Amino acid sequence: MGIDDLVNQGKEFLEQNKDKIQDVITSEQAENVSDSALDAAADFVKKVAPDSIDQHVDGVRDSIDKAVGNQ
After folding, report:
1. What is the pTM of this model?
2. What CA–CA distances, in Å, run from 45 to 20, 23, 50, 65?
C-alpha cells in the first residue's frame, strides 16, 4: 500500500463521516476541551511575551475559539 492509497482512504473516510465529524467538532465536550487548551496556551504566551501584546493574544484566542466547539 502506497502513500496515494493511504491518502485516498483518508479522503474517503472523511467524506463518508463528515456529518459525524462536524457533530463532534461542534459538541459541548469539544467546546470544553478547546476552551481549556486555548486558555492555557494564551496564559503561557502572556507570561513569556511583553504585556503590550496581551490584547492581541486574547483576540487570536477568541478567533480560534469561534472555529471549534459550539459557542
Report:
1. 0.60
2. 33, 30, 9, 16
